[in-house]
Each structure stands twice: as structure tokens, then as C-alpha cells.
Amino acid sequence: MAKFDFSKRDSFGSKFGVIAAAAGSAVGLGNIWRFPYIAGENGGGAFILVYLLFILAIGIPVMLSEFTIGRSAQRNVFGSFKKLAPRTHWYLIGVLGVVAAFIILSFYSTVASWTMEYIYKAAADAFSGKSSDQLTSMFQGFKGGTFRPIMWQVVFMFLTAWIVVSGVKRGIEKYARILMPVLLLLIIILDVRAVTLAGAQEGLEFLFKPDFSKLNTNSILQALGQAFFSLSIGMGTLVTYGSYINKRENLTNTAISVSAADTIIAILAGVAIFPAVFAFGIEPNAGPDLIFRTLPNIFQQIPGGYFFALLFFILLGVAALTSSISVLEVVVAYFTEELGILRKPATILAAATITALGVLSTMSWGVLKDVSLFNQNIFDLLDFTASSILLPIGGLFIVIFVGWYLGKDYTRKELSSEGLFKVKLINVFILIVKFLAPLAIALVFLNGIGLLKF
Ligand code: PHE
């Protein structure tokens, strides 16, 4: 097999392109599908406060660590650790990242498949005139089927591969630059509609009025897990994207902008959903099916509902797509740079194997509904393995690597772009990545695997 020519390595072409691509990775189903239902299950406002704290104190430092590793090494996640720490076992973090990418994208594409079906349903005006029960059985009937969920999953994976195959600048960056502003616009339109609903007040109060009595230790740890998933950290997605960032770009500002965009979109998603949930008397803790079962209900009861439903599910699909390309890129960068496979066959190979695993996940409520382990179906198992095990372990070792292996001087040099920028809070940053973040992440992990129960 041909050796990869590193002198021809692709990269992002502009500052806005970097932010759009990285924010595109971060903003996804995690913000619009997962954040509202997790916040809903954990009482709303107080949970969100804790979540914000974690984004600030832990999420941004972990993201910055990933950018530092990737940009200084200019390699895929596996190659980055090989290059920065030769003759050590740190490359195992890279192996973990590639494995996590396979797993995350396989269950992510399941939810993306539901999204595609709902874009279609919205376009076909399939929600109108249906009762809440009918809409629920509509969703469950679809989810438990075979042909349609698989078909949409294949379509979604095809779209993902199609963008990735075109490369970093002409694929990922180009699409992110267009899709991210569209996404922001769509969500703002939905927010305006949501807050002007009669009864919106209650939903906004639920979202923003902290009720600390609803908060237990478990929800605090869930907030940390959600911060990880939502920021795309812990598996080398942002090591990979960081490796495409120009040496003259300010990494600290990039990490802050991306985290801010991710957080703002999550809150805006909450603002789009909860006023409607309350206005129509739906339980805020409806769980993972929340948006698919409740929103069609809501859309058909509001003026212009056809339009807003279509808009919403397109929004969700766009958000999912700009995230899934970042996960696929982790694998493709590894295949091309380490195994010497050309970009096109590498993308096809990665997408095809992930789709195969993804089909098993998608069948978790259909033909494979009886397959379970530890009382979890395939989808839940993949989600649990990735979110509760692999991301925390990855994140833990990434900050330890930056804090203890690369160290302060090396990190300062990279973050300052060799002295181009002032790095003001380097001591705080090092303190966090050496001690605070590893400790906090360890707590999430131990809770996640049940070794530690609060
Ligand atoms: N951050 C993405 C989302 O919120 C999901 C994701 C996780 C993407 C991990 C890449 C890596 O939907």
C-alpha cells in the first residue's frame, strides 16, 4: 500500500471555517435531541447551571488539550500520540478514539435515521389530524420496523461519506460554513415561534428557574457526561480537527468560541422545545423519544405547523450531519495516514463497516429486540459503552497527557503559536488538566460503570 504523503496534508482554509467545522462537530443530536430530555429528566434550571459550570471548568480545558495535541502533531489521533510520545504506550488513546468513533457513529446514525424519516413525514404532512396516541404508535411502529429505518440509515451514512470523501477544505469546511449559519437561523425562527406561544412562560421558567431540590449527585454527574458528549471531546475528534488548524490560529479563542456556540445552541434548543412542551401539557421528562413523540403533536396544533415541523427536522438532520462527518473523519484520517489507504476507498471502507454495525443498533427495537446484555438492547449498549466508558477514559488520559507528559512549557509554546499570542491563564489551565479535570472525569466514569454509587 502507498505511503501517505504528509507534505500534501489537507487543512482548514480560514478562521471562520475552523470554527464552523468544530462547532459543526460539537453541535448535533447531543444539543437538540439529548440535552433537552436530559435537562428535562433532571429538573431543568439547576441542572443547566451545573452543566454550564462543567463546560467552563472542564469542557473548555479538555477541548483545548485536544486542539493542542492535534495541532502540534499534525496527525490523526493515533499518529498524534505516536509522534508526540514515541516509544510509549500513549498511542493506545488513539486506538481507543478510533474504536469509539466506530461505536458512536453506529448508534448516532440510528437517531439520524429517525430524523430522516421525520423530515420525510413532515414533508408528507403525516402528522396532521393524529392524536397523541396515534403519533406515539406511529413513532414506535417505525422504530420497530426493518426496511425504512435501515434505508434512512444508509442514506444518512452515504451523505456523511459523500462530504468526507471530498476532504477537509473542500468537504467538511465547505459544508460546515454553509450549514452552521443555516442551523442558527432555523433555530432562532423556531425560538421566536416557541416563546410567543400562549403558555410559554411555564416552559421558560422550567428551563431557567433553578430548583436545587431536584438536583441529586447523579444528575451532577450526568451533567458532566452530557458536557463531554455535546462538546465532542474524549475520543480525538478535536485532536483530528486540531491537526488541520493553521499554526497561526489562536487555539484558546477557538476553543472558547466553539464551546460558546455549542452551549448557546443547546439552550436555544431548550427554548424551542420546553415552552411548547408545557403549552400543550406534555411531560418534560419523556426521555429519549421526547422530540419524536411530542413535537409532531405540538407542530400540528400550531398555526404554520407544517412549515415548523419540516424546519425542525431538517435542522436536526443538518446538525447530525455536521457531527457525523467529524466522527467519520477520525477513522478516515487514521486509515489514510496510518494504513496508507487512499481517501476514497478509506471513506467507503469506514462508512460501510460503521453502517453494518449501525444496522444492528437500528434493529434494537425490531428483529433484534430480544438481544440484550445487562438488560440493555444493542443501541443502549453502544451508547453506554461510548458515552459512559470510552469518552470518560479518553478524556481522562488526554488531560493527563497534556498536564503531565507534554507539560507547561510545551503547552504554552503551542497555545501561544510560538509567542504570537499571549497566554494569560496558563497556570490555571495546567492546574485544571493536571488535577481538577482528571479527578472530576474519574468520578463520572466510576459512576457510569457503577463502581461508585452516590
Ligand atoms: N457532539 C456531538 C453532538 O452533540 C456528538 C459527538 C460526540 C460528535 C463525540 C463527535 C464525537 O451531537
Tell me what you see in this structure.
- With 454 residues, the chain is an all-alpha fold.
- It has one domain: Hydantoin permease (Orthogonal Bundle).
- Helix content is 75%, strand content 0%.
- The protein has helices at 15-26, 29-41, 45-73, 77-84, 91-123, 132-143, 147-165, 168-195, 200-208, 217-231, 237-242, 251-279, 290-299, 305-339, 343-362, 378-415, 426-448.
- Helix 3 (45-73) runs antiparallel to helix 12.
- The termini are far apart.
- It binds phenylalanine.
How is this structure best summarized?
This protein has 454 residues and is mainly α. The chain has helices at residues 15-26, 29-41, 45-73, 77-84, 91-123, 132-143, 147-165, 168-195, 200-208, 217-231, 237-242, 251-279, 290-299, 305-339, 343-362, 378-415, 426-448.
Structural class determined from secondary elements: mainly alpha
Task: Supply Rg.
Answer: 21 Å
Number of domains: 1
Distance between the termini: 52 Å
Shape designation: globular
Give the names of the bound compounds: phenylalanine
CATH superfamily: Hydantoin permease
CATH class designation:
Mainly Alpha
Number of H/I helices: 17
Largest sheet: none
List keywords for this structure.
454 residues; mainly alpha; Hydantoin permease; 17 helices; 75% helix; binds phenylalanine
Strand-helix topology:
Elements: H1 15-26, H2 29-41, H3 45-73, H4 77-84, H5 91-123, H6 132-143, H7 147-165, H8 168-195, H9 200-208, H10 217-231, H11 237-242, H12 251-279, H13 290-299, H14 305-339, H15 343-362, H16 378-415, H17 426-448
Helix pairs in contact: 1-8, 1-12, 1-14, 2-10, 2-12, 3-4, 3-10, 3-12, 3-16, 3-17, 4-5, 5-7, 5-14, 5-15, 5-16, 6-13, 7-8, 7-14, 7-15, 8-12, 8-14, 9-12, 10-17, 13-14, 14-15, 16-17
Bound molecules: phenylalanine.
Phenylalanine binds at residues 25-26, 28-31, 104, 229-230, 232, 235, 237, 323, 326-327.
